[in-house]
Amino acid sequence: MMRIIRPRAVLALIVVCGMLASCGEKGAPERSNHPGTLRIAMTASDIPSLDTTLAGNQGYEGNRFVGNQLYDGLTRYDLDQSTSTPRVVPALAQSWELSPTGTEWIFHLRPGVTFTDGTPFDADAVIFNLDRYMNPAAPQFNTAASGRAALSLSGVRSYRRIDDRTVAIETKGVYSHLPEDMVFVYMASPAAVTRWGSEFGAHPVGTGPFVYSSMQRGQRLTLRANPHYWRGAPKLRELVLLPVPDASARLAAVRSGSVDWAEAPNPDDIDWLRGHGYQVLTNAYDHVWPWIFDVTKKPLDDVRVRRALNYAIDRRAIATHLLAGTADTAEQVAPRASLAYRPDDDLYGYDPEKARQLLAQAGYPRGFDMTVSYPTSGSGNMQPGSMNQAMQADLAAVGVRVRLKPIEWAAMLTAFSGGSIPDHADAINISLTFIQEAFWGLLFGTGSPTNIGHYSNPRVDDLITRSTATIDPATRNSLYGQISAQVTADAAWLTAFNDRNPRVLAPDVHGFVQPKSWFLDLVPVSVD
In the chain, which residues have pLDDT < 70? Predict the structure, then answer.
């Protein structure tokens, strides 16, 4: 397939080449001139924040490459296998249990762990961090970090120190998935937070596998291995992260040997990369790439119209030809790799004639005009420009004229977190996941601040309430599956694709396991 490089892509390519190294037309991959150093070209438009939960200002890619490298939570995902959706396992807490009341989780902390500045990790450190996220009266309280942590801590009523190695967290009623949520409640050094205050993000200290070394804002972040990491020291000596939002520039960087790893390669380039010895890895994970409709706007307030748009998209052709197998089709809300996915709930195949009939029944035989805001790059967004243009063409074939409104990823996340669709568009395209179970309620619950499409269904609200109070994970996933089926039938979203998380690694990168997850484990990775 011919790939057109637009002027903006050319400019980005030139900038990256100048920033990293000269870009020649290479054939076989260069061997690394930096053994022990892993250089990663991210899709992010900037370096994620280094302050605990604020790493999410670049989406889950920020957590993937910064949050999870500098910090730990009480729990973590098991990322050392590639065959099943990762489960939550002990991290800074070595075990936990639920009290007989069902409203208090007891976490037993791992002994012998220290922050990378030598501060001991103990119950006092946990309480200090929870106060930073939840207690406005605490001197260390941080409003921005608190806002990011709210997704994980919304069910928490209070917390207390039982002894030096034990913490109790009380929830607002039975709150089933607190251990899953605690993955993202990162623990920072109390000594460093106290010393640096609001400047802590420039001097981050956690317990993670890597330690902050240096940063050039907008260009590169350098981390060095933590030799005392509680899971064992990383095999890498150094990790270098570079924000490269343009896919062509990422390709140029990996081909020139300027980076060892590139996220989300252009699908057009995959055959060439594999043929020239690069590792191209994919795997399903809990990811959905939808359009979220504002169901309060006409004609999107009519379910027939929303269903018509879902039937108008030739997902299989786009996944096969445009995306070259780097995505799966999504005919329902629950991603294929989600534990909530049920094949029988797949609903929307390609049926343009049915789309036209539904539009005519709704009073729009000649279609209508609408606008869609979409990100230009960023975490899990794959190839948003070409994908949205393909969907725009499919919808035009049934009479729906779509105006696409691009926006930078961080700006979109800010609008989304604030509960609005950018530029007052009729729909928003954004990469999402249900890996944090709280998202089922946040995205579909009536009145939720992040339910930016204003969808509401009493049955879904009841299922959300029941899932929150259901301790058994299998039963919870069944309830989430029912939520997915109902929201899919209501066509609150145009569900389009599930990403397969493609990334390119140079042959000299060893030890990496591509999990069925948004996240990854860099501890066993090495570079010759």
Answer: 1-33
503 DSSP β-pair partners:
263, 281
Q: What is the DSSP letter of 331?
A: S
Q: Rounded to an integer, what distance in angstroms lies between the CA atom of residue 240 and that of residue 230?
A: 22
Element (H, E) at 428: strand 427-429
Q: Are 333 and 484 in contact (CB under 8 A)?
A: yes
Residue 11 has what pLDDT? 38
Using alpha carbons only, give the angle 517, 417, 52 rounded to the nearest 5 degrees: 60
CA distance 57 to 59: 6
Q: Which residues contact 73 (CB under 8 A, 6 or more apart)?
A: 91, 92, 182, 183, 184, 185, 186, 187
Q: Is the distance from CB of 69 to CB of 224 less than 8 angstroms?
A: no
Q: Which amino acid is at 181?
A: D
Do 337 and 478 form a contact (C-beta atoms < 8 A)?
no
The token duo for 32 is: 């690394």
How many CA atoms lie within 13 Å of 312's alpha carbon, on the beta-carbon side? 27
Q: Which residue type is seen at 387? A: M
**Counting every residue, how long is the chain?**
528
| Contact assessment for residue 109 and residue 90, using Cβ atoms and an 8 Å cutoff | no
Residue 120's beta-bridge partner residues? 114
CB 442 within 8 A of CB 453: no
**Neighbouring C-alpha atoms within 13 Å toward the C-beta of 479:** 23
Query: What's the burial of 305, exposed, middle or buried (CB within 10 Å: 0-12/13-18/19+)?
Result: buried
DSSP 285: -
Residue whose pair of structure tokens reads 């990469």 in the numeric block: 431
Chain-centroid distance of CA 421 in Å reads 19
Give which of 107, 108, 197 is closest to 156, Cα–Cα. 107
- The token pair at 374 is 């979409």
pTM score, two decimals?
Answer: 0.91
- Residue matched to tokens 């390669």: 265
- Compute the C-alpha angle 226/228/233, nearest 5°: 65
* pLDDT value at residue 34: 75
